[in-house]
Design brief:
heterodimer, A: alpha/beta, seven-stranded mixed beta sheet, B: alpha/beta, five-stranded parallel beta sheet, binds iron/sulfur cluster
Chain lengths: ~210, ~475
Amino acid sequence: MEAFSEVEGLVATLSRDDVDTDQIIPKQFLKRTGREGYGEACFFDWRYDADGHERPEFELNHPAYRGAEILLAGRNFGCGSSREHAVWALSQMGFRVVVAPTFADIFRTNALQNGLLPLALDDSTCADLQQRAGRRDGYRLTVDLGAQEVRDREGRRAAFHLDPFWRECLLAGLDPLGMALREEEAISAFERARSPLLPTTRHRWE
Amino acid sequence: MEAQRTAYHKIWEAHHVAGDPLQRMLMYVDLHLVHEVTSPQAFSGLRAAGRRVRRPDLTLAVMDHLVPTWERTRETPDPVGREQLRQLSENCAAAGIPLLDLYHRRQGIVHVVGPELGLTQPGMTVVCGDSHTSTHGAFGALAFGIGTTEVEQVLASQCLWQAPAPTLEVRVEGQLGQGVTAKDLALGIIRKIGVAGGQGSIVEYSGDTVRGLSMEGRMTVCNMTIEAGARAGLISPDQTTVAYLEGRPAAPRGKEFAVAAERWLSFASDPEAVFDRRVHIDATQLAPFVTWGTNPSMSVPVGARIPELAQLPSGSAREAARRALDYMGLEEGTAIEDIPLDRVFIGSCTNGRLEDLRAAAAIAAGRRVSPRVRAMVVPGSGAVKRAAEEEGLDRIFRDAGFEWLEAGCSMCLGMNPDILAPGERCASTSNRNFEGRQGAGGRTHLVSPAMAAAAAVLGHFADVRQLEPADLGSAALGR
Ligand code: SF4
C-alpha cells in the first residue's frame, strides 16, 4: 500500500446523500479484469449525456472543480454494491480524500485498502465545508493524517479520528495482507482445530 | 453464571486467530464464495506477488453475474464478459478451486447455491466479494460482503482483519397478514430504520414472526440487511435451520449430523443477551410494499399514494425524493395502483428460490400476462429451476405468457443481455432500485414475487390480497 500522510488540495462538492456505488461506477465497466482505466467512467450516467458530452448541471463537471483532490459528499456515501471499482474510479478521477458525515461500511474498507482516505466529519462541519466549497472559488483544504486534523487557509481547523489500525497502515504504507501472513503460525494452529468442523467445497456437486 | 452472549459474539470469539478481539483481530474465514466479477483483480494480485490460494477446499466459485439466461448452448455474446468468465475458469483450475461454471447442473446465484448445497452452516464465517453475502446470515452465520482487495487477502490467508461491531436487534412480533411476505417484512424494516439505519452494526432479527419464517423467507430478510446499511444480518439458528440442512450435500450425515446440530444450536443468542440497540417491528402493521423511488427505503403500502413532497421533512430527504421522482418519471401523490408497467422481473438472490416461484405461480396460474408487459422468471439456481419444473411451475408461467429462463443474476443488475431500456418501468423482486440498476435510464420498483406476478397480469400495480391465488396443491404452495 502507498503511504499517505498529508494532502493539500482543491475541494469539490457532491451535495446529496446515499450516493451508491452503482452511480460511482455503473455495471458495464465491471466486466474489465484490470484495476486501471476507471477514472473516465466515474459517475458515468450523471457525468455524461447519451452522446457522451458532459452534463453541465452535474456538480463535478463545474470548471471550478477541475483537478479537485478532495471530494465533499453527503451522508452514507458509497452504499450498495461492494464493487471496489468504485474506489479505483474515484482515485483515478483524481480524488485522494472523500469527506462525508458517514460512509457505508464496505466502501469505507475498500477505500482504506487503496489509500483513498474516507474522512468522517460531523454534520455541522460538513455543512460548513459544503457551503465554503460550494462557492466554487477555489476553496482548498489540508488533510493531515498524522495530526488527525483538517485545516483551511483561513485558519479553520477540525479534528477527526481514524481507527488506529488504519492510521498506522496508511501512514507507514503497511499492507493488511502482509500483516496477516506474518501470523502464519497462529493461522496454522487455528486451522488444525477448526478444519475438522468445516464442510469442504471439494465435493462432487450433483 | 456465564455471561449472556449474542450469536454474533459467539461466532466472533470462535474465529479469533490473532490480535485483540476488543480492538481489531485477525478473523478466520470458514467459507469463501467467489464469482466472476469481483475476483479477476484479486487473482492477478496474488499471482503478481507469487502467492498461492491457501484453502481452495474452503472456497467455491460460481459464474452468475453476467451469464446469459438463454439455453446454455450458446456462448456469452459479449467478448469482455466472456474474457471474465474465461479468467475465472483459468484461475480456479490453476488454484484447485471448485467451480460451478455455466454448464454445471448446480450453477446459480452464489447466495442461492451456497445454502442449497448445505455449505452455509450455523456458527460459520462466510465472505464473498458481493454485498448480498448477508443472505447467509439466515443460518446464524456471520456473513458479509468484501471488496476485491479483501478477496485477495482471503484467498492468500483465509483471514481478514476485523474490528468488533455494535449489535442491533430487530425484533419482529405478530402475524404477517395474508399476502404479506418476507420481502415485505424486509422492505418494512428498511422503511422504518432507513438505508443507513443499520450502519456499522450487526443486525440480529428475532421475535416470533422471524421464528415463524421458513429458511427461504429468512434468507430474503437477511439478504436485504445490506440495504439498511448494516455490516451483516443474522438469525439465531433453531430447529428450522437444522431441518433445512439435513440431507444437503455438504451437511454431515448420520451420527455426525446430530453432533453438528447440537453444536450449531449452541450459537443461538442467549436469552438474556444484551444488544447495543433495539428496534421493534409490529408485523401486523405491514402490508405488501412497493418502492416508488431510487433507494429501497422509499416505499409505501400498495394501497397508498406516492408521498407529497411537502409532507416530507425539508432538506436533504425532500431533495432526494424530488430527484427520485424526477428520475422515476412519477408525480407526487400518484396512487401506486395507477402506475403502469412495461416489464416484470421475478428472480435474484432476494426472491429467486422455490418458495418465491411458487408464490408468483399461484397468482399467475390461469391468468395471462398483460399485453403491454414483458415478464421474465429467472430461477435462482439450476436446482431451483429443476425443482420448479418438477412441480409444473414452468408450465404455469409459460401458459400465462411469462418467459422461463436459465439461472443467474440476470436483470437484478443487468450485466448480461437482460436489461431495461431507458425509461422502461419494471416491477422487480430484486433488492436495489438504484438509478440505472437494471439498465441505464430504467425504472425499478421493488416488490414481492406475488406482487410482481399480479403486476404482470394486470399491467399495473395491484394489491395481491385482492386476487384469488390458485391452489397449486400442498406441495407446490409449500404448506
Ligand atoms: S442476484 Fe443481484 S443482488 Fe444477488 S448476487 Fe446477483 S447481482 Fe447481486
